[in-house]
Amino acid sequence: MTAVLFIVILVGLVVIHEFGHFIVAKASGVRVEEFSVGFGPRLFGFEAGGTLYAFRLFLLGGYVRLYGMEPGQPETPDSFNQRPLWARVLTIAAGPLMNLLLAAALFWVLFSGLGIPKIVPGPPQVGTLEAGMPAQKAGLKPGDRLLAANGKPLANWNALLTVVAGSHGKPIRFLVQEGQVRRTVNLRPAHDPSANGQLHIGVAVAVTNVRQPLLAGLGSGISQAISVCTLLVTAIVSPLLHGQAPPVSGVVGIYGAVQQAEAAGLAQVLTLAAVLSANLAVINLVPFPPLDGERLLLLFIEWVRRGRRLDPSREAIVNTIGFALLLVLAVVLAYHDVVHMHGAL
Questions:
Q1: Mind telling me the catalytic residues?
Q2: Can you list the domains of the chain with their CATH numbers?
Q3: Taking a C-beta distance cutoff of 8 angstroms, is the pair 295, 66 a contact?
């Protein structure tokens, strides 16, 4: 199931990206020769409106082929380079923009559909119990409220954490409310080896999913998508300014993240997909061949040169070299992720 989910997320993000290029190219009069899901040998497909729609063997993404972007193709009114500059800019920018919109839409579903987990307000309420820890041994149950500790009211979860951490392992007398019944329970916090030996009583806080109204959720979704993009730019630029390599991950690392998200539930899967979509938008705007950022840079240079394009043959060579370097980078990142995962085991 992890592999299926990984492919669905990966292919979905890329297809949405390519659909952005496709729909704007069609609207601006550019001939779209092919829209393919996957790479390699064609499994099946059909032609409509002068465009081949195909599904290919290796489902690791997809692509759109626009007429006039390959060297040697005759210039016609519907070729990419014959369309107005603004139309070409919008066609290229539409890919990253679609990924940004997808991220906002996924966050919207998360905020207004599933809801955001928030700690139940008021005195700490027991969510789950850890087997073998003091709370479970003392008979506490999910839903119980811890009203007071050693005679002092507990206003919230942070107050409970403070009392437990400051107990020095001595017993704590809790006033517990179970439904309409109140009782006193004595608990001696224990050291939890899985939490660096910190003192715990073995309860997890109760949370509730709070759904935002649709319009508020939409605003939060857009804001969250922009925030993720801003954080990514900072995470890339800041290390580079200090002469360090930015923290990036490859396909193997993404697979591991999908595996963890699947175990955590649907909300975490949607969050991961939204973050990856925002990341794809930002990465594609980097001015490195053959990413969208490089094509936008070339269009800007063309505008500065008042319509004079760079030599298409040289542009093709640069794109080929850039693509090869990206493949090498993908292999290096995959190796790094495998070594890191092996070390973590």
A1: 18
A2: 2-115+212-344 (no CATH), 119-208 (2.30.42.10)
A3: no
